[in-house]
Amino acid sequence: MRSTVCLVVLEQFRLDDKVAIVSGAGRGIGAACAEALAEAGADVVIGARSADQLAETASAVEAHGRRAIAVPVDLSTRDGMQRLVDATAELGGVDVVINNVGGAMPAGFLDTSERAFDAALRFNVTTAFNLTQLTVPAMLARGGGSVVNITSTAGRFAIRGMSAYGTAKAALIHLTRELAADLAPKIRVNAVSPGATATSALEIVTDSPELSEAMVAATPLKRLGQPSEIAAAVLYLASPAAGYITGEILSVSGGIQGSNLELGLPDL
């Protein structure tokens, strides 16, 4: 009896014959999310600028016996997101949306231009707004769905040098809660908040021994996270296993409860 119960629980993490969109899926967390969703049974539409990187992700998806549609496109625009959504028609619709595209370079406040600040908001928040809004009709047509936004601990705690990126990710956290309220009960909206994760996007930091050591020291588990660990949390929130969860932010940060990370920026 006990083993039967375990089997039923594990089945709740399956996404058999569902269709997912993953933005920013050429590498890192996005690529890991696409592969995790495919392993759980979903077909996946993936978008990013680099066709070569998308091809690698598509191969990983197909290795799990699922279909992959790669859309090389600029996802910073609504038209680019529309192309991603249009590609789901070949798979019959969409059930899961992973808003992963985003990022911004750290910089001191006085060195952050208005243009850079606006760009961080657009690339991290407006992209999620656009893709979610464009996919809602398709999800409703299939009876509902799940949206998972990828935010950051920089959106939860103040870190010097993150005025643009941190503010954008904080806005994405609040957008998650707003959309959860607006789209209930048929569409659930949650977010995963990663800590420092070992991806190529973090190489500018990890290439510096001092900054890398500072990140590890600031993390209670004393290591960087892995993309697969973020993807596992995303799969949970996207799957029926999290069917009674919406409007929540799941921290996958190695235990970070505050900010004591220094990026080496000089005092004013």
Could you give the topology of this structure?
Layout: H1 2-11, E1 19-23, H2 28-39, E2 43-48, H3 51-62, E3 68-72, H4 78-86, E4 96-99, H5 114-141, E5 145-150, H6 163-183, E6 187-194, H7 203-206, H8 209-217, H9 227-238, E7 249-252
Parallel strand pairs: 1-2, 1-4, 2-3, 4-5, 5-6, 6-7
| SS element count, helices | 9
Number of strands: 7
Q: Beta-strand level of the residues, as a percent range?
A: 5-15%
Structural class by secondary-structure content: alpha/beta
CATH topology (level 3) name? Rossmann fold
Radius of gyration (CA) equals 18 Å
Query: How many domains make up the 3D coordinates?
Result: 1
Report the span from N to C terminus: 65 Å
In N-to-C order, the SSE pattern is: HEHEHEHEHEHEHHHE
Any guess at the CATH architecture? 3-Layer(aba) Sandwich
Average residue pLDDT: 92
Characterization of this structure:
With 268 residues, this protein is of the alpha/beta class. The protein has a single domain, classed as NAD(P)-binding Rossmann-like Domain (Rossmann fold, 3-Layer(aba) Sandwich), CATH 3.40.50. It is 44% helix and 14% strand. Strands 3-2-1-4-5-6-7 form a 7-stranded parallel β-sheet, with helices on both faces. It starts with a helix and ends in a 16-residue tail after the last strand.
